[in-house]
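Technical note accompanying the year-one report. For the benefit of new consortium partners, we illustrate the data format agreed upon in the data management plan: each record pairs a sequence with a structure-token string. No post-processing was applied to the example shown here.
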Amino acid sequence: MKVAIIGGGVAGLCCGIALRQRGIDVDIFERAASPKTIGAGVVLWPNATLILSQLGLLQSIKGHAGSPKEMRRVSSSGDVLGSLDIGIIDKQIGSPSLSISRSALINVLLGAFKKAGGHFHCNHPVIDILSNPDMPKASIRFKSGLLITPEVIIGAEGRMNSPSRHYVLGNNKPVFQKFINWVGILENHSFDMDENVVLDYWGVGARFGVVPLSPSSAYWAAGITVETISKKQPKHYHDEIESVFKHWPHPILPLINATPLHKINKIYVHDHDPIKTWHKDNVILVGDAAHAPLPTSGQGACQAIEDAWHIAEALSGDSSDLQTTFKRFTEARQEKTANITLSGRQFAQTVFNDDPEFCRIRDETSKSTDFDSLAKAMATGWSTA
């Protein structure tokens, strides 16, 4: 079997690794000149690290990752709203949580894919996926003019521009959720903070999160509500962020000011409504192309990693009837990913709320939350079992 994967991010690379480990011939085609590393970092929750361990990648990733033990919620005025013991989640699922920069994660995955005998092709933007009237197989047409017809096409191009999703559904229109994230990564810097504590600051219509990666590095995300999408002006990112967060608690302002401008990105946050159809002919969607949860879900990369395991298992079994194989994969993944997408939206509506009175009640409610029970509920929802 020959498989072509469109997209060289977390979803595509993990699919490639899992398939190569099962002896399947895989080519990954990435549109960019180098593997994509959009976003500063990611928390790999234990449902993801459990699979990475099964793929033989966990030790390599640990060498580049932090080990968060606590998630502390704080108001924009500095009041502690509660703390969640990440160890409860880890223990219930049976694997550690890790924090890692997206570039380090991609580098580990790319190295593992190539070592497993996979073929990675940069500078291969896809123009279209074409149906063939003579057979139930689609072909990929690249900007270069190259046309290929593999036995299986895995669409892992992400949420914003997915030819695979357009082929399967007839459209690819993500939903703008009326908030933006500036994301940044700061390395080789002295921090006045605990390297094992994730900080989550809540304000009115705004949120600031800090995730340590090591004693001297961290990534952060600054989010605010907006009504419309406007042109990005990278040279003004520091000023834009500081205008919102300059009076928020320490260490937010020093983190912003110490982060080099070229290490900051601005993202207008979109997701997709859950869908029931993930495949057509020989094309199957995975990761954000199939289900694109908001960052508030905490599970975007993790669910992509789960997809990789399940699609590799499906294709390495009896795959003589692709439609049955794809249906089995979709049935295994659709309900869980839909629930995560919808819960991410619900949480975003709570965090990114512009009503001061709503936010006051929200913060008071947080102070009385049973965070141990919350951690157990999160583990139950994320469990791969």
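Partners are asked to follow this layout when depositing records. The chain has a mean pLDDT of 95.
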